[in-house]
Amino acid sequence: MLRVGMLTSGGDCQALNATMRGIVKGLQNIYGDLEIYGFIDGYKGLIYGKYKKLKPEDFSGLLSKGGTILGTSRMPFKEIDLPLPDGTEKIPSMKETYKKLKLDVLCVLGGNGSLKTANRLYEEGLNVVGLPKTIDNDIWGTDMTFGFQSAIDVATHAIDCIYTTAESHSRIFVVEIMGHKVGWITLYAGIAGGADVILLPEMPYDIKKVYKAVEKRMKDKGFAIVCVAEGAMTKEIAKLPKKDKKAVLAEKAQKYPSVAYEVADLMKEKFDSDIRVAIPGHTQRGGAPDAYDRLLTSRFGAKAAELIKAKDFGKLVVLKDNVVDAIPLAETAGKLKYVDLDNQAIAEAKTLGICFGD
User: Fold this and answer.
1) Would the N or C end of the chain have less CB density within 10 A of its end CB?
2) 231 near 180, Cβ under 8 Å?
3) Is 136 in the active site?
4) What phi and psi values does residue 85 have, to the nearest 5 degrees?
5) Among 12, 104, 136, 293, the one annotated catalytic
6) Mean pLDDT across the chain, nearest whole number?
7) Per-residue model confidence (pLDDT) at position 334
8) What confidence score (pLDDT) does residue 269 get?
9) pTM strictly above 0.70
10) Alpha-carbon distance 177 to 199, whole Å?
11) 66 in Cβ contact with 133 (< 8 Å)
12) Region 294-298: what's the mean pLDDT?
């Protein structure tokens, strides 16, 4: 009988349950009998030996259920070798739980930090398979992460709703989309939602160019939509040394709740129009996974089951050119997949007249 451990770590997303279902269905079809240990609240459950003992039938109906039945929490990798407040050592405790339960494999559903920890556990001798979870789509080595497309759908719907009210009241709306370090959601949702300006963390902006684009839009249509990623910043700030940049951003955080309010404030210096801020926020993580993510996670789950059958551990399931494959966890650990400034979608968006402020 195969003994499988599973955990969901880091930020939540719509397709965690669907991915676990895919893994279990694949393994059940291959092995028949399974013992499944679902660790509560991510790596914390593995550390403290808190888990749910589950049966394959417990995963029935999860394809369309958002969130995670196991719960999740963040465990920063940079602190992985630091003891918890109660003195518990993280890595040794995780290894002890794994061995105590006599697990054959641990499936980790997580983003960048979670996968770095997964790779560390593999290096420590545990059988680990990783699956790429994040709405940000910033995991190096895979074209797509599960949760990304569902987040785009939510963000695009929010822009659609803002579009009609902006048009009705002749307003300028600044819509803030999730993405501190990378701007994939903002890029895709901004294009899909018909935004006039898209500001990304990877492309520091010149506010004067943003003014010009919004001014033209207001003259032509009477309203405008500016999509801003959480980590967007001006060219002036981007040029600062790391220490000075950090100080400036900390000062701005005291003045503005988020970057969208700063951009809106700058707009008020130039335009007499009514300027509003809209922040979809955590709705982008919530709700049911869309059809694409259901398909993707089913494929990912099947691939994870195949890796386990082959005893091919220390791997991350990935999608490359629409082919589901696997790469070593060590290859992706610690790397972020940023929006490439030569990305074809950016060039095409510029052809459509979308301004990036660069």
Assistant:
1) N
2) yes
3) yes
4) -50, -30
5) 136
6) 96
7) 85
8) 87
9) yes
10) 10
11) no
12) 97
